[in-house]
Amino acid sequence: MIALIQRVESARVDVEGETVGAIGAGLLALVAVEPGDGEPQCRRMLERLLGYRVFSDAEGKMNLGLAETGGGLLLVSQFTLAADTRKGMRPSFTTAAPPGEAQRWFDRLVALARDAHPPGVETGRFGAHMKVHLINDGPVTFRLEVR
Asked: I want to staple 102 with a disulfide (CB 3.0 to 4.6 A). Which of 8, 45, 97, 139 is the partner?
């Protein structure tokens, strides 16, 4: 499982002109499910999403995780993160989980996140053409991987 996380002042996802998910300050996580991902990867990714220290403490150092700040979490499925780009000029998506498998484990990650992070978890819409709007704070962007 792969997540590209961005510390944001705010973020939202629109589908066909309608906002389907929005947060204030927190994390936007673009998430790709890879073949073979399952419950262990969902749980470890959630642990990393909530605990990865990307927020500043009182001394201005990145020492706080999302769980400590109480910020929002916007989870957006993005299979293109799992693309194989090593050859040629066109990505291959054979390294991404098939849509049914991907949706199952993305939805599980969302459910676990909602249980573990009461301050708020929002999502995009799986499989939809989405417009993602964000104000990146920093900018601070990291790629997280769990196997």
From this structure: 97
